[in-house]
Design goal:
381 residues, alpha+beta, Heat Shock Protein 90, four-stranded antiparallel beta sheet, 54% helix
Length: 381
């Protein structure tokens, strides 16, 4: 992973985890307080029931004729009774307690007794808070948070990879483009320089025709690369002159233009061009359409292969006997920088330019191919 990709991934993960965990902590805090209050309420209900039980027993003692009265102790809670002035009368507490200074670490319930059974006006029922269910709740929440953070981290990493995937693809395309541009430009430039040197050295004693032919091929390659890159970057800004154009005549000229390239690869070019096929199209766009299809048919063909070029008033077809295109690549073969085969070089922009021109003039583009047998491109107008 490149430094820029790591940087983007770390930024995404940081923002994602901070925001997600913060929201989760707030939700967990609210849930914890709610659950804790529920547990406390359950304990208070127990306290309330015990208070009612003790009050009933006090009423029964008050009405009884027994000489010895036993205070109704409870195994669940501690209790005490107070007079009207809140003075302590009796209770089950080890130490005397006051109604005005109650222990806040305990659950306390004060009930007013009317009429005053056994002279008591107030009944205090108290119980230590059972912290065990609260501690269990805390442990469960902590465990759940650890699991949740692990899940958030995993999901964040997965989402982060999806997030940076377009960036990664763009960087890879840029790197491939630079590498391909270096290779594509270096080859014809080297051919031109080498053959110019040969012409200078051997011009006086040897026919320079072959060297000049190589220079011509390399120069045309450079020119085509320049035209394609210019169109890709500036085709929306270039002014166009759309007029009735003789495509039959232009196609013959472009076939002648590529004659040296086809001959260098020993290709057989079969032409079936109907005369007087006219289209309303910008000449430069027509040239780009024709050139890219013929160029690809040459580049991706086999040595001693065949190119068939057909033109009539309804369609333009270029087929070859080359390496072909895999079926899984056909759907995206017209995407910019998409190459089904990297062994032959190129930028992956030829068919993209063809598709752009076809789309601009509402032509229908159809590409069929069989791997290791060849490709056929049809333009319907």
């Amino acid at each position: 992973m490149l430094a820029s990709e790591k940087k983007a991934l770390y930024r995404f993960l940081t923002i994602y985890l901070i925001s997600t965990i913060s929201l989760f902590l707030v939700a967990s805090y609210i849930f914890y307080n709610s659950a804790k209050e529920h547990l406390i309420r359950q304990q208070k209900e127990i306290l309330k029931r015990e208070a009612q039980t003790i009050e009933t027993k006090l009423r029964e003692l008050h009405k009884s004729n027994k000489k010895v009265l036993l205070y109704p102790n409870s195994s669940v809670v501690e209790s005490a009774i107070f007079d009207l002035d809140k003075n302590y009368i009796f209770g089950s507490f080890k130490n005397r307690v006051s109604l005005d200074n109650l222990d806040k670490s305990r659950l306390n319930s004060i009930i007013q007794i009317e009429p005053y059974y056994l002279g008591a006006a107030y009944l205090l029922v108290s119980k230590k808070i059972d912290k065990e269910p609260i501690i269990k709740l805390q442990h469960s929440l902590i465990f759940f948070m650890i699991i949740a953070v692990a899940i958030f981290l995993f999901l964040g990493y997965f989402l982060g990879k999806l997030f940076i995937k377009p960036l990664k693809e763009a960087i890879e395309q840029k790197n491939h483009f630079i590498q391909d541009a270096t290779h594509e430009l270096n080859t014809p430039i080297s051919i031109i320089l080498t053959n110019i040197e040969l012409i200078e050295v051997f011009n006086k004693c040897k026919d320079a025709k072959e060297e000049l032919k190589r220079v011509e091929i390399a120069s045309k390659t450079l020119s085509r690369i320049y035209d394609d890159l210019t169109y890709i970057n500036f085709h929306h800004k270039v002014s166009k002159s759309i007029k009735k154009l003789d495509i039959s005549k232009l196609l013959k000229q472009r076939v002648e233009y590529f004659y040296a390239l086809a001959k260098a690869k020993h290709l057989e070019v079969n032409l079936e061009i109907k005369e007087q096929v006219y289209l309303n199209i910008d000449k430069n766009d027509a040239i780009r359409l024709i050139d890219n299809l013929i160029s690809n048919a040459i580049k991706y063909n086999r040595h001693n292969g065949v190119i068939n070029i057909y033109l009539d008033k309804n369609k333009f077809v270029v087929s070859d006997s080359g390496i072909g295109i895999n079926k899984k690549d056909l759907a995206k073969i017209t995407d910019r920088f998409k190459r089904a085969n990297s062994s032959e070089g190129g930028f992956g922009i030829g068919l993209n330019i063809v598709s752009l021109v076809a789309k601009e003039y509402n032509f229908k583009l159809n590409i069929t191919s069989t791997l290791n047998k060849g490709t056929e491109v049809t333009i319907l107008w």
